[in-house]
Amino acid sequence: MPAIAKRATRLSDGRELIYFDDADTKLPPDRPRDPRPAEPRPPVPELRLDPLTGEWISVATARQNRAFLPPADLDPLAPSRPGRPTEVPGEYDVAVFENRSPSFGPAVAPDGAGPGADADPGIGLGRYRTGYGRCEVVCFDPRHEGSWADLTPSRARTIVEAWADRTENLSKLPGVGQVYVFENRGREIGVTLHHPHGQIYAYPYVTPRTRRLLQSIDEYGPSLMGDLLAFEQGSSRVLIKGEHFTVFVPFAARWPVEVHMLAHRPVPDLAATTGAERDEIARLYRRITRAFDQLYDTPTPYIGAWHQAPVGTGRDVVRLMLQVTSPRRAADKLKYLAGSETGMGAFIGDISPEDSAERIRTALDAVGE
């Protein structure tokens, strides 16, 4: 089978657009140019330090004006049509482009800036810095609606290749501290577009969740993630034991529906995976999302979050992990982050992880391979 093809170009305002063509694509190699007049890019956000937590907050005011659940004929992620130009000028299998309203960027740090440069100046009042970085949109399919559960195996594999490519290239940008690949699916999650898509953030610092993971590894020892894999593989919460990844409901699940997929070898990020590992990622993630939609009569909202090692630290101890979570605790009920979770960061589980694993295992059996 031919290889997945990558075709890079630019939109009229200078943003990068990259087409990833399926290995079995029926599309021609040439793509039309963006017919829209050039528009100015938004200002780079300002990062402000919260002295109570040591966390950076991005003040990205341009995001206030982004599209919100437009009808199909105004879908900005659909291929352009005569008289209806969109973010993607031509037909595509998978398309990746710089976000028009980014949370970080569009400018990147000056050449020579190290990973997450100047991101941790210590606690102080009124501290701020420029929100350098990059945010990209990954269009999974040209159709207006759908999700990973609706994709062909070939298309799923193309998306994984795009994730790995963008992780590698974004990690090389000056000042980038961490690359985060994720998917939001469903109105209940807060999506602003129905179109099946995900996003990639290149943060100018190491995120709070990953900083806490690094602290846990420091306290436990460098074998933490390998030992965690062995612990979960010996539990009743295992859903799938693959050749390269194990899928399980974690011992201390926060959400009513929560599934983790952990690499068997100490691979730090998607860019470092082999072709065989990417094949299995595509197959297993597709099975997981299809199983989620078997849990209820209507599609299950979820967030698919790829936890990767930072660019400049922890790469020998942080192991690639997917976490897919849903707040849906019953057919007509959602778990909201209320007083304890929002105010104190103290989660309270509504469903036992073992019971959740049994339900998801039944759903996996229903969808098969």
What do these coordinates show?
- It is a single chain.
- The protein is globular.
- The mean pLDDT is 94.
- The strands form 3 sheets. An 11-stranded antiparallel beta sheet has the order 1-2-5-7-9-8-13-14-12-11-10, sandwiched between helices. The chain has a 3-stranded antiparallel beta sheet with strand order 4-3-6, with no helix packed on it.
- The chain has 369 residues and is α+β, with helices and mostly antiparallel strands.
- Helix 1 crosses helix 4 (275-292).
- A hairpin with an 8-residue loop joins strand 11 (245-248) and strand 12 (257-263).
- 22% of the residues lie in helices and 22% in strands.
Instruction: Indicate the overall shape.
Output: globular
Low-confidence stretches: none
Q: Tell me the radius of gyration.
A: 20 Å
State the order of secondary-structure elements, H for helix, E for strand.
EEEEEEEHEEHHEEEHEEEEHH
Quick one: how many beta strands? 16
**What is the tally of helical segments?**
6
Main sheet: strands, sense, barrel: 11 strands, antiparallel
Kindly summarize this structure in a few lines.
The protein is α+β, with helices and mostly antiparallel strands and 369 residues long. The protein contains 6 helices and 16 strands.
